[in-house]
Amino acid sequence: VGLDAAKQELEEFIPHVRNISNSSIKKMAGRDLERFKQFKKEGIAVKFGRFSEKENNQIRKNVKEFLSITGIDSAEKLLFTSRYPEDKESIHRLKVENKFCEKLSEGIPRPWRLIYYRARKMFDPNNYKGRYTNEEKEKLKKYHAMHGNDWKKISEMMSRSNLSVAMKYSEIRSAVNYGPWSKEEIQKLKRAVEEVIRKRIGAKGADCLSSPKKSSRDLSIDHEKLYQKLPWTEIEAKVGTRYWRQCKQKWVTILTNKMTKGQDLYKGINGLQAKINLIKRLYEMKVEDPNEVNWGELSNAIGDVPKTYVQAKFYKLKVSCVPFWQKKTFSGQYPSCLYIYSLRFLLESR
């Protein structure tokens, strides 16, 4: 398939494909296009975002089967071959001969690259090592001074994953303020978010974000652009005094306050009703995994708010209302929530 034809065909499954590099599109045409077409025949949509537990289990199954077929010793050798230079050539040959790309992505309707990154995260023994000690933080600063942003090299020196060392360095590279946000910091945050959004969609599109002529569908898409997949490490650098996660949380708070005109949707009788509506809508969806929930659609159950706001509210509901919620399935958490908040609604509305 030629490059232009590949872009056109992939666009049906990945709307933002024209923003992807040509080299990546060529790889996707080979690894993903036929898979996507087959999933379409089966009525299965291509997915993005967080992996569900069902998908994680499928990755585990695929990796286990591939190891069984090839006789490779471990998932670490399979997914982090560069750590084993003496076996590198033979492992690479086994991957090619046994169609590693196809086997790893089997049964998972996502781009192969995302499946591969997820598998590496799941099977990296260096990925879950707890908090960094002060000694490790000092080593990280020292290694970064020597090697810059070569996270692969630094991760090997520290026996931590690439992502872990990169994010930890982002957190400790400068003094971070943990107190209340100042007016100056808030203004910096707003300017930083505006800059990255304008860069992404173009100045003309950004100027139209609040146009009253837009349909409700267009408006919801615009709202997503205001908080979905923003480059938070870039925003962190522009703010200068706050860690990226603080910036993200503060921006969601600012956006929620703006969208609700400063009203607390969870106070009083109306707040109880909003919680009941949210739980009922979740129950009607009949999903078994929180990652399969369309949280954006659910935001309509309690008002025009970012989906992260809705996710956070449901988390607080189940933690406060469902005994032993960690041991229950996602769908099994609804009845307790619904019973308790329906009872509160009846008592407080008398």
UniProtKB/TrEMBL annotation:
Q: Where is the Myb-like domain?
A: 124-172, 173-255
Q: Which InterPro entries match?
A: Homeodomain-like_sf, Myb_dom, SANT/Myb, TTF1-like
Q: Domain named HTH myb-type: which ranges?
A: 124-161
Q: Which GO terms describe its molecular function?
A: chromatin binding
Organism of origin is Brachypteracias leptosomus (short-legged ground-roller)
PROSITE patterns from the entry? HTH_MYB, MYB_LIKE
Biological processes per GO annotation: termination of RNA polymerase I transcription
PANTHER family, sorted = TRANSCRIPTION TERMINATION FACTOR 1 (PTHR46760)
Task: Give the CDD domains listed for this entry.
Answer: SANT
Name the domain of life this protein comes from: Eukaryota
Ranges that cross the membrane: none
- Its protein name is TTF1 factor
Q: Name one GO cellular component term.
A: nucleolus
